[in-house]
Structure of Pyridoxal kinase PdxY:
Amino acid sequence: MKRTPHLLAIQSHVVFGHAGNSAAVFAMQRTGVNVWPLNTVQFSNHTQYGQWKGEVLPARQICELVDGIAAIGELGNCDAVVSGYLGSPEQGNAILQVVAAVKAANPRALYLCDPVMGHAEKGCVVAPEVTDFLLTHALPQADILCPNQLELNSFTGRTADTLEECVTMAQALLTRGPGMVMVKHLAYREKQPDSFEMLLVTPTGTWHLRRPLLAFPRQPVGVGDLTSGLFMARLLLGDEPVAAFEFTAAAVHEVMLETQACASYELQPVRAQDRIAHPRVRFEATRL
Ligand SMILES: Nc1ncnc2c1ncn2[C@@H]1O[C@H](COP(=O)(O)OP(=O)(O)O)[C@@H](O)[C@H]1O
Ligand SMILES: Cc1ncc(COP(=O)(O)O)c(C=O)c1O
Ligand SMILES: [Mg+2]
């Protein structure tokens, strides 16, 4: 019998709605991965409501919780660490210690970093020191980096007018640590207005993918977290990178379709669960 992969997911938890682990854990489980959720914050709701209650987990607890897993002899069963929304820069350092401990216990384990950065325009609130941590310390340690366009711009210190420039920027990151970069959402000056575009860059090639851009009165949050989580899950399940990329785009699109059909601001992973596991749509990535 094929072994079920295990994935340590270190990102936010919201009591109401779907962002961070609250967007990704169920979806990853639904594809067939055992998820170990470690919540960096427990907030009432995501920060783009403009108000929330709740607390940030003290950074030392991240290490303590993982020490506990090591103490029962299970850390070597961890196949990947995914990190996302951080409540403090100290949590970032703790996550890198955890990544080192996981890799010591299982040298084949992978670290996927979704470098969630604050963005005033979007209303996503993250401490500026977290951004500094991601730019300086997380990038070189990540095996897989999944930025959105704004985050890609921050890593490379520039913006893009063309798809070619986005490709150059993403490829440049391959020389700075990660072995794979998935840009979850491209935004460049010449982009067609009716499409949602993504990019995958590996040492063996570059792939571009388009899916339809759906209309929402208010953009749902947590899409990036869902995207990164599903990509890692499918890689662990044995997909080649391009297959994992195409699957992820399809499964996330299914959630977006359901969310739009319900006229909901919050993502609808529960209603879309069968289509997360078995997407009906398919988007083919084009090799550039
Ligand atoms: N098919 C789609 N149609 C319309 N909007 C989408 C679609 N897929 C994702 N989005 C939106 O695109 C945005 C992606 O956000 P962005 O900040 O670029 O990435 P991330 O979610 O990783 O932070 C989100 O606002 C999300 O709601
Ligand atoms: C608590 C929390 N987690 C995660 C995110 C990241 O969401 P997204 O995947 O849309 O970048 C946000 C964004 O505002 C958030 O407030
Ligand atoms: Mg994001």
Summary: The CA atoms of residues 86 and 106 lie 24 Å apart.
